[in-house]
Amino acid sequence: MTIKDTPEEWEIRATETPFVGNKTSVRTDDVVMPDGSVVRRDYQVHPGSVAVLALDEEDRVLLINQYRHPVRHKLWEIPAGLLDVPGENPLHAAQRELYEEAHVKAGDWRVLTDVYTSPGGCDEAVRIFLARELAEAEGERFEAEHEETDMEHARVPVEELVRRILAGDLHNTCLTVGVLSLVAARGGDGLDALRPADAPWPARPFSS
Fold first, then answer.
1. Which residues are annotated as catalytic?
2. pLDDT digits over 125-160, tens only?
3. Displacement of CA 56 from its chain's centroid (Å)
4. How many CA atoms lie within 13 A of 15 on its CB side?
5. Which residues form the Nudix hydrolase domain (predicted)?
6. DSSP state of 2
7. What is the rounded average pLDDT of the residues 83-107?
8. What does the DSSP 8-state code read for residue 140?
9. Collapsing DSSP states into helix, strand and coil, what is residue 200?
10. Closest Cα to residue 80, out of 107, 98, 62, 105?
């Protein structure tokens, strides 16, 4: 038996979009169940995201601190952002986010992991990259706005982040999944065995 997620799509008898927002929307589908019954399912339609676990030469992860209104918290996170353009290359988006949110560039990029953040109620797919060989980016800093105007930055050792995650002090999905995936990769085949930065991503197909 192979433990692997597989694509599948059940019959949809009807669909509507009762809400359309600036970046996301809500869709309602009438889905045919295996027993023939039809059940209504509401979910958020999301363009997808990328996140960057940027690891420096001192084994520290670059973090940002940002207010997140839905959960009424300021969260420590890794740089991340939406795939604003359909079909956008996720690596290019990740490089942009690292530059805009931290004014940092990286010389080595790998795919760390791919996740669905909340597949029971949202179709958001996130690709988390590992970025190494960090250096300050050239040029002017990106002009922040809205929640990003008071963003704080920090570099925290991997071991400290693991302790904080397991203690319940850190809650951001991409930070948690990224750090624990990093530790698991080190304990397995090593970071150089991770997928290349341009590895296919069926959840959000892209052009090179």
1. 148
2. 999 999 999 999 887 775 656 556 678 999 999 999
3. 20
4. 10
5. 44-178
6. -
7. 93
8. P
9. coil
10. 98
Query: CA 115, 117, 121, 123 torsion: positive or negative?
Result: negative
**Contact by Cβ (8 Å): 169, 75:** no
User: Would you say 161 and 176 are in contact if contact means Cβ atoms under 8 Å apart?
Assistant: no
How many CA atoms does the CB half-sphere of 158 hold within 13 Å? Answer: 18
- Rounded to whole angstroms, the Cα distance separating 79 from 68 reads 14
What contacts 43, CB < 8 A, 6 or more positions away?
26, 27, 29, 121, 122, 123
**3-state SS string for 99-131:** HHHHCEEEEEEEEEEEEECCCCCECCEEEEEEE
The position carrying tokens 């930070």 is 175
Count of positions (residues) in the chain:
208
Residue 33 corresponds to which tokens in the numbers above? Answer: 């169940």
**Buried-exposed string 40-63: b where 16+ CB fall within 10 A, e elsewhere:** eeebebbbbbbbbbbbbeeebbbb
